[in-house]
Amino acid sequence: MLAGSILISGCSSEANELIVDSNNVPQKQKAGTFTFRLGGTAASSPTSRDVTEESQSFESAIKTIYVPFFTKKADTDESTLSKLYIYEGEVGESNTITKSEDTYIIGDTDNNKLLSGDFIVYFIANPGAELANSLKAMKKDVTKVTDFKQISIDAKDTPNGGDTAGEQNGTGFLMISDEAQVTISSDDATTCTVNMTRLAARFDIINTQSYLADTQPNGATITKVQINNEATQSDLIAPAATSKETYLATTAEKTWTGTADSDNMTLYTYENITTNASKNTSLTITYTLGNNNQEKTLDIYLKERATDTQLGVKRNHLYSIYLNCVTGQYSLEVKDWEEGATVNMPNKDIYVEYTADNLGKIGDYVYNDNGTLTFSDGGLRKMYLNGKLDYESTRPAPATDKTCIGIVFSNMTSKKDQDACFTNGYVMALKNANDVAQGPAWGPTNTNNPYIPDITTIGGTISDWDGYTYCKAIKDNNLLESYPAFKKAMAYSVELPSKASGWYLPSVGQLTMIAYNLCCIDEIRSLSNSTASSSSYRISTSYDFLTNFNKVLSPIPEAERSLIERSVNIASSSEGSKTSFGYINTNLGVNYMILSSSGGKGSLGGNAEIRPVFAF
Which candidate, 25, 30, 194, places its Cα nearest to that of 106? Predict the structure, then answer.
C-alpha cells in the first residue's frame, strides 16, 4: 500500500497556555474577580476550521464551562480543590460564572472572604453528562490535582458532544486548556485569554475519483468506513506517554453519507497514542468500482511515508485522507486544528514522491537474491492521485551483478491475496511463458469454471485482481491439464523465493494494473459508451499501450525479455462467460488497446501471449 503523508506538527506547550505578558508570567487579577476569554468562541478568534460551513460551525461553539480552582493545602505540598466554578449557559440554574458578550467573569465570596491567592486552574468546555458528573463529584479540600488529572472520559461522552453534521443539539466539542498558574490579588489586571484544545481528532476522507456514469465510469463509489482500533474513551489530560489500550474498541461501520458522487465524509474520534503497532488506529474503506456492485476494501494506515513511521491520532488534529480507490493510492495530510485552517479538494498536482532509495515500488526491477526478493530503482518519481505516474525521462537500467526476474507493477494487492500474506504487490515476468506463434487452449469450451466468477462489467474488469486465487483453485482441484494456459503460466521456469506466491496467469484486472502503472495509461473508455457490458473497452486514443510497454522493458538485456512486436492478445485467468475469457489486445500501429471478455476458450489462437505474474 502506498501512502504519502506530512508529519504531524505538534503544538508547543506555549501555544495552549494562558496568554500572558511578555515575560510569560501569568497576569494578576483584581481581588474578588477573575475575568477571561476563551479562544474557540465564535465571538472572538475561532480556532476551528471551516467555521463558515453551517454543518461544521458547532466545532468552535462554547456551550458550558467548568473551571476548577486548586490551591495548596496548609502544611502540605498537595493542592486540593478550592472551588469548581460553572457556566451552564444563559438559562443555567447553577451558574457561578457570568458572561458578558465574549468575556466570562468569576466573582465570589467564601465565608465573606474575597477570592484571592495563588491557584492552579483548568478550563473545561462542553463536558458531556458523564464527565460533568465526575467534575461535580470533586470535593472541596479533598480532591487533589492528581485526582483531577486521573479523570477519564466515559464512552457515553462522544468526542463531538453527540453532535453530527447538521445536528447541533448536543453538548458540543469537549475542550480543555493547559494548566494555568493564576494569582489573584489587589492589583488591577487586564482580562486573560485562554486557548482551548479539543479532545477530538477530525478525519476528512475525500474520494478523488468518484463514480460518474457519463464522465468517470471507472470511478469508485464508497459505501462504508470502518475505524479500526478507534478510541471511544479518553483521558481528560493529554497522556504523557501512551493512551490506555482499554479505550480502544471495534465500533460499527459508518455508512458513507450523501449520494454516490459525494466527495467527502467527516468523522471524529478521541486520540490514540500507542507504542504497540498492532493497536494503531487505521481505516478500512469499502467501495465499488464503476457500476459493479461487488464490494472491495482499501486499508488506510496512518504512516509517514519517508520513514514508514506509524502516526498516532492526536487531539485537536486534522487528518485529511485523499483516496483514489481505482489505483489503490492515498495521500495523508496531518495538521493542527488551527484557526482558519482549510483543506481544499485535491487536484492533479497532489502526489506521492519517491527517490531512488525507495525500493519495492512500482516500476522497480526484481531479483531473487539467494532466496530473498531484492529490488533496484526503476525510475518512478511521482504517483499522482489521479493515477498518473511520472518516471525518469531515461529509466535506470537493472543491476549488472545479478539477474533481473521481473518488474513490480502494483503495490496494492487484493483482499484475498492479503489474507494469504501477499501484501506488498505484484511482479510481472520479463518474458512470455509460451511461443507467441500459437497459444494453447485457455480451458474447456462451453463450461463455467466453478472457481472463477464471470466478469460482466467494466467495474468488474478493473477490480478483478484475484488471478492467484483462480490459478491456485485450478491446481488444488487437479484441473491444470484441462486448462493449458494456466499450466503454462504456472510452469514458468524462473525460480522464485519460497515466500513469493509462485508464477500464475494474471487476472484481467491485473493486466489493467500493468496498463495503468507500467504503461502510464490512466483512462478507460467503452467503445460503445456503455458500462454494462465488458465485451470491449478501449483505451483512449491519446495513449499507446504497446509502445509504453516496450519502453518499460527496453533497459533489460535483449536475451532476457520479450517485447510486443505485433498485435497480440495477452491472456488473463478471468472468465467472461461459458465460452469466453478476458484478455488485452494491443493493436499494433493503433494508439489504443482493447480489454475484452470475448476470447474463445478452445484456443488462444495465433499471436497470443501468456505473461506470468507473482504476488509478494
Answer: 30
How far is Cα 11 from Cα 13, in angstroms, rounded to an integer? 6
How many Å apart are CA 474 and CA 497, to the nearest integer? 22
Other beta carbons less than 10 A from residue 447's beta carbon: 12
Tell me the three cell numbers of residue 145: 490535582
pTM surpassing 0.90?
no
- Residue 162 CB neighbours (<10 A): 15
> Which residue has better confidence, 544 or 576?
576
Which grid coordinates are listed for 67?
Answer: 473551571
Is there a contact between 157 and 48 (Cβ–Cβ < 8 Å)? no
Residue 279 CA to residue 248 CA, distance in Å, equals 8
| CA 153 distance to own-chain centroid | 26
Residues contacting 190, CB < 8 A, separation 6+: 27
As beta bridge partners, residue 225 has 254, 285
Query: What does the radius of gyration of the chain's CA atoms come to, in whole angstroms?
Result: 31
pLDDT tens digits, residue range 239-258?
877 888 899 988 888 888 75
Q: 220 by DSSP, 3-state: which?
A: strand
Dihedral sign for Cα atoms in the order 559, 562, 563, 567: positive
Q: Evaluate whether 575 touches 453 at the Cβ level (below 8 Å).
A: yes
- Which helix or strand (DSSP H or E) is residue 473 part of? helix 467-476
State how far the Cα of 51 lies from the Cα of 40, in Å rounded to an integer: 10
Residue 240 CB contacts under 8 Å (≥ 6 apart), including other chains: none
Which amino acid belongs to residue 460?
Answer: G
CA 540 – CA 525 distance, rounded (Å): 6
How many Å separate Cα 510 from the centre of its chain? 23
What is the C-alpha separation between 374 and 503, in angstroms, rounded?
A: 17
229: left (phi over 0), alpha (psi -120 to 50) or beta: left
What b-and-e string marks burial along 173-208, b requiring 16 or more CB atoms within 10 Å of the CB?
bbbbbbbbebebeeeebeebbbbbbbbbbbbbbbbb
Could you tell me if 490 and 503 are in contact, meaning their C-beta atoms sit under 8 angstroms apart?
Answer: yes
Q: Which helix (H) or strand (E) holds 383?
A: strand 380-384
Residue-wise pLDDT for 449-495, tens only, equals 899 998 877 667 777 899 999 999 999 999 999 999 999 999 999 99
